[in-house]
Design brief:
By secondary structure, the protein is an alpha/beta fold. The chain has 15 helices and 14 strands. The longest helix has 18 residues. It is extended.
């Protein structure tokens, strides 16, 4: 017996294995109970029909069949992708660990070190995912990576965590967008922020749906904690991201590079100790303070100095991509992906023996 609305209508309709009742009609419920319990032939008929109906309509095998059939119908109506770059698959669902790099002054800055880092990632045969986390918007990110010969990342966290996109096809994570939209009132934020001296809105190209960006005059602007306290008093719940003593991004309370990285880890099943994040400035602070492995490159901005005594944050001596490589070595992040030198020799020797035997 089940109520005559929602899913039960479909189940009993498909399986013919019960009666539908009005949950507000006690007389109707009593009559249905008596009917089901007293009519043995009907009971057996419904029982047999239910088992057959579940197998036909609600089993795992039937679900797969219907799903594949539906997908096949959709694919049959969809134009095939001819762009080779757009057809490449995203590796993120199958990676064993993930390297997340800020771009400006972290990933970029030393061309030779960048090439070495990219070659190292490539040598892992897809076991290590590569992501960027930046304050830039997506178009600017794609452009600067292309200009510097950086392969397309598996994951883009852009606009200081305001947007997430995947792989070569730049597919947006709409679940993340819905998640961070909570209590976000950009028009109200802009109106209230006019109160504070030392802030000037950046160009329109830097403004995004979930990011309001300002240039900062550090000699005139109030302390960030004062701005934050004022906004809370007026029931405006946002996140302030201050970087390089020159830029301020105002974000939804649920948005940041750090929260985006944690979301990705949970969504794709990558545990924190297999995620290494790297950065150089204040907009990387929350990302570095998570329970992932953190690396601050040697050319860091002074607002990160307060993190020096924290666990799982390594301050590299070297700068830019060399600092990233130093951090990877410090944590032994890739050690178990490559056999020791002796093992490699044994593997080569065994391979030669097999080849000779053949």
């Amino acid at each position: 017996m089940a109520t005559h609305d929602g899913g039960p209508q479909d189940i009993i309709g498909a399986c013919n294995n019960g009666l539908l009742i009005d949950p507000l009609d006690t007389h109707n419920i009593a009559c249905a109970l008596i009917n089901v319990l007293s009519d043995k032939p009907q009971w057996e008929k419904m029982s047999t029909s239910g088992l057959a109906g579940v197998k036909k309509n609600f089993s795992w095998e039937s679900h797969i069949h219907k799903y594949v059939e539906a997908v096949g119908n959709v694919l049959g109506k969809t134009r095939r992708v001819t762009d080779a770059s757009a057809s490449k698959k995203n590796r993120l669902p199958t990676v064993d660990r993930l390297l997340v790099c800020d771009i400006d002054h972290t990933l970029l800055g030393d061309e030779q070190a960048l090439r070495q880092l990219m070659d190292t990632i490539d040598s892992t045969d897809g076991k290590v995912g590569f992501a960027v986390a930046t304050g830039r918007n997506l178009d600017s990110t794609v452009k600067v990576l292309k200009e510097n010969g950086v392969p397309t990342p598996d994951l883009f966290i852009t606009c200081v965590g305001g947007e997430i996109h995947y792989g070569h096809r730049m597919v947006e994570d709409t679940d993340w967008e819905k998640h961070i939209n909570y209590r976000w009132k950009p028009a109200t934020v802009k109106k209230v922020m006019k109160k504070f001296p030392g802030l000037k809105l950046q160009a329109g190209t830097e403004q995004r749906k979930h990011k309001i960006s300002y240039n900062v005059n550090p000699d005139k602007v109030p302390k960030m904690r004062e701005i934050s306290a004022y906004l809370r008093q007026h029931d405006i719940h946002v996140k302030l991201v201050y970087s390089h003593q020159a830029f301020l991004d105002v974000m939804p309370i649920r948005a940041s590079k750090g929260l985006a990285v944690r979301y990705i880890g949970m969504k794709w099943g990558i545990v924190p100790e297999r995620i290494l994040v790297t950065g150089d400035s204040g907009n990387d602070e929350e990302m570095l303070k998570g329970n992932t492995l953190g690396v601050v490159v040697g050319n860091y901005s002074k607002e990160l100095a307060k993190l020096k005594d924290r666990d799982l944050i390594y301050f590299a001596q070297q700068s830019y991509a060399n600092g990233i490589i130093e951090g990877i070595n410090y944590y032994g992040f890739l050690d178990d992906l490559f056999p020791p030198a002796d093992d490699q020799g044994e593997l080569q020797e065994w391979s030669a023996i097999e080849e000779f035997s053949e």
